[in-house]
Every structure is written in C-alpha cells, then in structure tokens.
Specification:
Strand order of the largest sheet: 1-2-3-4-5-6-8-7
Number of helices: 6
Number of domains: 1
Shape: globular
CATH superfamily: Gcn5-related N-acetyltransferase (GNAT)
Structural class: alpha+beta
CATH class: Alpha Beta
Radius of gyration: 15 Å
CATH architecture: 3-Layer(aba) Sandwich
Strand content: 25-35%
Distance between the termini: 31 Å
Order of helices and strands: EEHHHHEEEHEHEE
C-alpha cells in the first residue's frame, strides 16, 4: 500500500483489498447512507469489488482516488478522503467520509487540508469541485472554511434532491 501524505494525527494511504471490512462498515454508516447514498455494498466481496472498480482502478488510470485515513495513534482506519473524476466529467471532485465515532473531532478538516495540498502541489490539479447534499450543513461549513466557494445549487435527477456545487481554484 502506498502512503500518500500525513498530518500531525493522520496518515492517508491507498486502499487495498484488505480494507474490505472497513468499507462495509463505512458505506453502511448512518452518515454515508444519509448524505451520500446506498452503494449496495453489504459484504466483503461487494466491498472488494467496490474498491477494485473504484479507487484501485482510479489509482492506475487517473493517478488518484479515494484514500484510507488512518489514525496515527492507533493505526485504525477511520475514514476516507480523496479524489474522483466521474465518467464524462472534466472536473476532479474531492470527497470525504468518516465513521461516526471519528466525526466532529477535526479529522475531516485535517484530512481534507492535506488532500488539497497533495492535489494542488503533487498532482498539479488547477481546480477542484465538491458536491454535497444541500442539507449536509457540516460538510458545507467545512468546505467554506477551507476556501471553497458556492457555484450553484441544483436538483439532482439521479438522487431526487437538492445538491450544492462548490469550487476551489489553486491559489
């Protein structure tokens, strides 16, 4: 597994198939289901497929993906943070999610800051977008705190609800 970056409290590294149990737990957590949506990943076999067809493929084809966020103190996987470039999209999107026990402790802010730095400095990305459900006030607050600006609010035909699109240009 490849380490991407680290902070005072966290290590971000590429996911491996060994992370399948964590992926099942995260993708079925209340926050994920409530703000991101059901990905129909309910067992380790489905989680391995999710990783192989998602981030692990993206590492090979795009040079980035979602990364596991590990607590240095305990070496425990606590969340994910990273990049996705959706099919037919020009923009690269940043996203993040954490297990409920690790929310509201500053880990998301710390991980996103480190990921932004990696994206702009190492990957040489010029612009990033972030999309959130309009009722995900904690994510919206974090994006604004980190310098993202609201570009638009729109109705998602796919998800049937209001989404907000934020943009951050490299400084």
């Amino acid at each position: 597994m490849k380490k991407i970056t680290e902070t005072e409290r966290l290590i971000l590294r590429e996911f491996t198939k060994d992370d399948a149990a964590f992926i099942v737990e995260l993708l079925n957590s209340e926050g994920w289901l409530g703000y991101i949506g059901d990905r129909n990943v309910h067992n380790e076999s489905q989680a391995i497929n999710y990783l192989e067809c998602g981030s692990m493929r993206s590492y090979q084809t795009k040079g980035f993906g979602f990364y596991g966020v590990i607590l240095k103190e305990s070496h425990e996987l606590i969340g994910m943070c990273g990049f996705i470039q959706r099919e037919k999209a020009v923009e690269v999107e940043i996203g993040y999610a954490f297990l409920p026990a690790f929310q509201r402790k500053g880990y998301a802010s710390e991980a996103v800051k480190a990921t932004l730095h990696y994206g702009f400095q190492t990957l040489k990305l010029e612009k990033l977008i972030a999309i959130a459900r309009a009722n995900n006030f904690s994510s919206i607050k974090l994006l604004e705190k980190l310098g993202f600006t609201l570009e638009k609010t729109y109705d998602s035909e796919e998800q049937g609800e209001k989404l907000v699109l934020f943009i951050l240009n490299q400084k």
